[in-house]
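Supplementary Note 2. Why include the ligand at all?

Several targets in our set were suspected to adopt different conformations when bound, so apo predictions alone were not considered sufficient. For every target with a known small-molecule partner we therefore ran a joint prediction. The input for flavin-adenine dinucleotide is given below.
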Amino acid sequence: MKPAPFDYVSAETVAHAVEALAAASGDGKVIAGGQSLMPMINFRMVRPSVLVDINRIAGLDRIEDRGDRFHIGALVRHRMTASDPAIARHVPVLHEAMKNVAHLTVRNRGTYCGSVCHADPAAELPMMTLLLNGTVHIASPSGERTLPAREFLLSSLTTALQPDELVTGIAIDKLPADTGWGFEEFARRHGDYALAAVVATVERRQGRAKNVRVAVMGVGDTAMRLPAVEAALEGSEMDTPVIAEAVARLREDIEPNSDLNGSAAYRRHLAGVLAGRVLKAAWERAEEEPAA
Ligand code: FAD
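The joint prediction is reproduced in token form.
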């Protein structure tokens, strides 16, 4: 397929990009890595009248260390996030997740922020952003605003972003050094979109679980945190019966869809199996805080 005709603007600044989007009266599209957008344009699933290319905007291609958070700019490619030593040190669970994002060529162009904006329910980065209490930094004609990722990601391929807005970056938590983590996904081939994935982090304090975070993807219209599962684990000793109960709860709390790749029942079962492994791994990796 070939795309329908469109105008092209190569934005020089964030303000220029927002101006071009506003001028398109709701019919413009930002292009970052183009890895998801171009296929959709070629299949005419989207027909923007204007493509606003942000690749020339200076300063968006950095991962900035901002104390207890990292700020990932809108032009940070998957390859950069995957190989960043500070991410590997402070957010090892994201370093691990990045190994599963797409294939080499896609990783060279695709961006972290583009993946979150695309909001594919089977993509790792929306899930990781929810896990890491991400906030989305947005430039709009009226100024700047930030939204928590849980308010940004609405459903499959749908976000709270307005047509004249641009995501300039996403901020995520660093994790305390002794945080335990687990990440598991099941995909038919490595690097493909997964059928389901589960991720968790936990701190161990006096033998009990603290600050438990659990997120899933591929088992609903969007990636999700699971507050009831987190609450069930918080303060527990995360032994086998507790994990089994959490897995049962997780299976209750998700609403997978059936599609060509698997039935809802299969995905529910799969998510539970992955969750059992993830929670066990996270607890085993968590280190007890040294006595003061
Ligand atoms: P683009 O394609 O440029 O844009 C995607 C959408 O986001 C568009 O609607 C665009 O307008 C919008 N957008 C992009 N940036 C911004 C911004 N800064 N502000 C506002 N809107 C913006 N992803 C995974 O997570 N896991 C996988 O396993 C995986 N496998 C893949 C396999 C293949 C073969 C392909 C082609 C893609 C795969 N992807 C996977 C998707 C890949 O990660 C994409 O790079 C990503 O989803 C989109 O990033 P992008 O920078 O290419 O965005």
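The pocket of flavin-adenine dinucleotide is lined by residues 29-37, 54, 74, 101-102, 106, 109-111, 113-115, 117-118, 123-125, 161, 166-167, 191-193 (CB under 6 Å). The domain at 7-53 is CATH 3.30.43.10 (Uridine Diphospho-n-acetylenolpyruvylglucosamine Reductase; domain 2). Comparable summaries for the other entries are listed in the accompanying table.
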